[in-house]
Design goal:
It contains ten helices and ten strands. By secondary structure, it is an alpha/beta fold. It has one domain: 3-Layer(aba) Sandwich (Rossmann fold). Strand 1, helix 1 and strand 2 form a beta-alpha-beta unit.
Length: 306
């Protein structure tokens, strides 16, 4: 069975970023043989900000909600036609009124989507950190994996970069990377980021020779681990093109390597811990999502307790 289950949910608002996400979601739906759902959430005014007479009128609230859902439906019908024009099947549409991030997560749970695809509002190097609040909130609170699409290319325009660290989520991410590589024919690179000497030794005093021995031992263990990961993914049909060992801050090293390799997708595991603690997304994955130049797939598997 696919790591992503049998359905993909695309969240769209008609923006240029959403248009790129649409093409990517349609492509993945075909490659992974997954049912494609489309959701558009039309925001509605907060009733608490209305004058008392309007806030007390259920008829008025119902009328506003109905108009918003109608606008969302019109938008989605146009997006569905685009999907069919790409050679895809008939997607299932979900027009909704409300708060976009909350409603996207709700619809994803409702349809059992194993993957949510959403566009980012990142606007280049300096403003990459100013990511769209909706997309970042969905990454934080979704029960399943989220693909944030950024860049001008549609689909996977280059190889895949998978960041591994030996955690449960990284193992699930390895399965996802292998499946995507096998289904799309994309080459796969694997990276493990080692701590710096200061991080590794802390304030403890070690002789120069002992430090060298410890570093060499650590590098040997990481090399063995990368070989094992590559072998595992190749056994699942992936085409592994490179294994990389980096030293430094994981998020910065992952983003930099992704640029050097010109990857079409970066995959990281999430350290979110479920329920209320979902907002405590792992700082590495959060930072990679904010700063990467291209699409980032954050893997979360609820069965792993995250």
């Amino acid at each position: 069975m696919s790591v992503f289950g049998g359905s993909i949910l695309l969240a769209t608002d008609g923006s240029p970023e959403a248009e790129q996400a649409l093409g990517t979601a349609a492509m993945l739906s075909k490659k992974l043989d997954a049912e494609l759902h489309l959701v558009s959430v039309e925001p509605i005014p907060d009733p608490l900000s209305w004058p008392e007479a309007r806030a007390m009128s259920p008829e008025l609230r119902g009328d506003i909600s109905e108009r918003a859902e109608k606008a969302a439906r019109t938008k989605l019908e146009g997006e569905a036609e685009k999907v069919k024009g790409m050679g895809g099947g008939e997607p299932i549409i979900h027009p909704v009124a409300g708060r976009p991030d909350a409603e996207i997560v709700h619809v994803a749970e409702e349809v059992g989507a194993g993957l949510v695809v959403i566009g980012s509002r990142g606007l280049g190097p300096v403003r990459r950190a100013v990511m769209g609040s909706v997309s970042l909130s969905v990454v934080h609170h979704s029960h399943g994996s989220v693909l944030v699409v950024r860049g001008e290319e549609v689909g996977l325009s280059g190889p895949i970069l998978l960041a591994v660290d030996g955690s449960d989520q990284a193992r699930v991410a390895a399965d996802a990377a292998a499946e995507l590589s096998a289904s799309t024919g994309s080459g796969l690179h694997v990276v493990f980021v080692m701590p710096t000497a200061e991080q590794l030794y802390g304030h403890h005093y070690y002789t120069k020779d002992l430090r060298k021995t410890l570093r060499e031992q650590a590098e040997e263990e990481v090399s063995t681990f990368l070989d094992e990961q590559a072998g595992y993914m190749e056994s699942r049909g992936a085409r592994v093109e490179g294994k990389h060992m980096a030293v430094g801050r994981p998020d910065a090293e992952i983003v930099e390597l992704a640029e050097q390799l010109g990857v079409g997708l970066t995959i990281v595991g999430s350290r979110g811990l479920g329920g209320v603690r979902r907002s405590l997304l792992g700082s590495v994955s959060d930072s990679v999502v904010r700063h990467a130049h291209g699409p980032v797939l954050v893997i979360r598997d609820e069965e792993q307790g995250t």
